[in-house]
Structure formats: structure tokens, C-alpha cells
Specification:
little secondary structure; globular; two-stranded antiparallel sheet
């Protein structure tokens, strides 16, 4: 739904490739996500979130229904998966 970063062997889809940063070999990825980053996850949209619907992504995060999945060459289906939690921190 949202690509946080991309690699040469696992590039982001064309619709978001230009606005998706390159994944570092290790460390932290930082940036800002906008509606332009939101892709429709499935066809039909089994997650009921369409491309550009950032407000729905934020609602899913606040409801505790969002997760991040890290794909690697060794485990292309996903090596690490973790829940995303909303925070009131302003830092």
C-alpha cells in the first residue's frame, strides 16, 4: 500500500518510484508520506483502501490495523512483519 523504500532488485511500482527513497543497507528510513504514496494494495481492493486514500491509511493505523512488512532477497514474501502504532509524540 505504501512503499517506505526501494532497492535495485525490488523497485517500487512505477506510480511511486520517483517519490520512494532508496533503502539503506542498514539504519533508518525517514521521510514524509502523502496521498501520492498510497497505492491500491489489491485488485479488487480487499483492504478497502484505494490509491490516494491517505486518510483511510491513517485511520487504519489509529485503529491498530496497520503493519509494516520488510521484504528481502532471501524472503521476498516478507522477512519481518510488525504492527504500526499511532503515537501522540511530537518529536
Amino acid at each position: 500500500m505504501i512503499w517506505l523504500c526501494q532497492t535495485a532488485t525490488n523497485p517500487a511500482p512505477a506510480a511511486v518510484a520517483a517519490i520512494t527513497p532508496v533503502c539503506p543497507p542498514s539504519g533508518t528510513v525517514t521521510g514524509h508520506v502523502t496521498a501520492a504514496n498510497v497505492l491500491q494494495a489489491n485488485t479488487p481492493p480487499t483492504q478497502q483502501i484505494l490509491a490516494g486514500e491517505l486518510a483511510d491509511v491513517i485511520a487504519a493505523i489509529r485503529a491498530g490495523m496497520a503493519y509494516a512488512n520488510v521484504h528481502t532477497t532471501l524472503s521476498p514474501g516478507g522477512e519481518i512483519r510488525g504492527q504500526i502504532k499511532a503515537s501522540d509524540d511530537k518529536d
